[in-house]
Known about the structure:
The protein is an alpha+beta fold. Helix content is 20%, strand content 32%. Strands 5, 6, 8, 9, 10, 11 and 14 form a 7-stranded mixed beta sheet that branches. β15 (265-270) and β16 form a beta hairpin. The N and C termini lie far apart (46 Å).
Amino acid sequence: MHIVRYAEGSGPARVGILDEAGIAPLEEVADLAELLRLPLAGIRSLVEEAAAGGERLAPDGVRLLAPVDGRTEVWAAGVTYERSREARVEESGQLSVYGAVYEADRPELFLKSVPWRVRTDGQPAGLRGDADNSVPEPELALLVNRHGEIVGATVCDDLTARSVEGENPLYLPQAKIYTGSCSLAARIRPWWEIADPAALGIRMRVLRDGGTAFKGETSTASLHRTFDDLVSWLYRELDLPDGAVLATGTGIVPPLDAGVRPGDTVEIEIDEVGTLTHELVVATPRG
């Protein structure tokens, strides 16, 4: 079962649950942001009541939308896997910066996207036109309510203009935040249905010209921090009235000479959570 945002034809966006029988609307809330204002117990009750109901919409006539709306912000954590730390050092030569944040109590957290910029399954994701080297970063993303409780999980591609951040770590916002840089799978797996979130396999393939240009895998077991710790730091001194999506960092980073190109297709799969597939394009071509 998954929580989804969807629309029938040209109709308004709604929220529901998707299972093998189809889509059951959550009639009690107008949008996902309203759902995330509720405590976790209330959210779970609404979701399970909808799942137990008999009426379903056929998925064929429904468009699945990006799983974020209202004032819900998308944030991301950096350097939470050892491979991410190694890659950042390779790119920048700044061992002291990235090594320190990997070991520190305070994690690296940054705003990744606002809702209207988020892409989802099948929609092209963006590459910076002024970056020579970019990489997809497959991540488990947490859906968190306004009370700081984890509601569910989805798949995120935290696209990064690697050459921009590598030039200077202070360019992180430009390397991470640009048109098309954030993609989230449309389906959110309820957190209470995931048996062991700390042991989920994550796999990524980059397809090019009919073949595989890169593939890699990792597990959330290699995450250097706990999910609850990351969420607690995000909600410290920060008001998130419609909750947040928090991408938890990547443990898969292609080598320096294996950046992605326009026309590549990225496939990401996370056990028990779902998949995300999209093509890469230049978001803002120069000239």
